[in-house]
């Protein structure tokens, strides 16, 4: 049984939020599940002659809803929503979800900034590609180290929605064909500090939540990449600019 | 509480299905509400509530391996239906 825990206090965009959006006309609108009841915000934006671009994340159940794993170019139904938008507006608290909107624009030469409106604290913040530069730099270095590695560890989670043992097995077969040795490691919550206990592994591949492969990398010395890049790491290096 | 935890829907489900032991899994920001939730549910139903101590990253992270504890209902707060692409990301 799932309970969305919708935010139940009525909220409107603050004057500060409207001012941050003022120079822009086309707005791609997103929120975390607690804040996707956006009728009032949409009304406010339409009153100020804004065009609202709507998307539907392929793993989500509602329009405008954003998940942390919506961090790929093909994560949304609204094709080219980020190309069409002048700015992105995210409604919710924290940075985990809106950072997905930066990761999913990695292939873009003209990534759109994100204005975050937090209804709980009535606060406004703006994030740009600069906010994920450290992670991308580390990730690119990890891709290069992965290509050179001979012994690979593949991480598989037992969490129902994150479990991709079959994909891990396919990768293992490909690595074997390339003459590389690989091992599949299984856990519920993937705790990257455990990597230290297996010093024979030269590079790691994550198959669980894709954000594991991006967000925490800067804290670890052993290279880790995501499985979708492990099949064609040379292409991935280009993708991350 | 600023979030709608829909207690009456949970209570109705427990009574209709006769659940005796349930598990509450809460997103981090809602975890402090666990005590109030348990008190409300246990006072209005015959069900015993267990609280998930571990992660709650999303609907991709439901604790479905707890059958040995005799739990017949998991209530996950803070998420809606997650559509997994079984082929991969």
Shape designation of chain B: globular
Query: Strands across the major sheet of chain B, in which order?
Result: 2-1-3
Order of strands, main sheet of chain A, comes to 3-2-4-5-6
> Could you give the distance between the termini of chain B?
35 Å
Please name the CATH topology of the largest domain in chain A.
Answer: Rossmann fold
Main beta sheet of chain B? 3 strands, parallel
Mean pLDDT of chain B: 92
Treating each run of at least 4 consecutive H or I residues as one helix, how many helices of chain A?
Answer: 8
Which regions of chain A have little confidence, pLDDT < 50, spanning 5+ residues? none
Oligomeric state as shown: heterodimer
Shape of chain A: elongated
Low confidence ranges of chain B: none
Most strands sheet of chain A: 5 strands, mixed
- Calculate Rg of chain B over CA atoms: 13 Å
CATH C-level name of the largest domain in chain A: Alpha Beta
Strand content of chain A: 15-25%
Question: What is the alpha-carbon Rg of chain A in Å?
Answer: 20 Å
Helix content of chain B: 10-25%
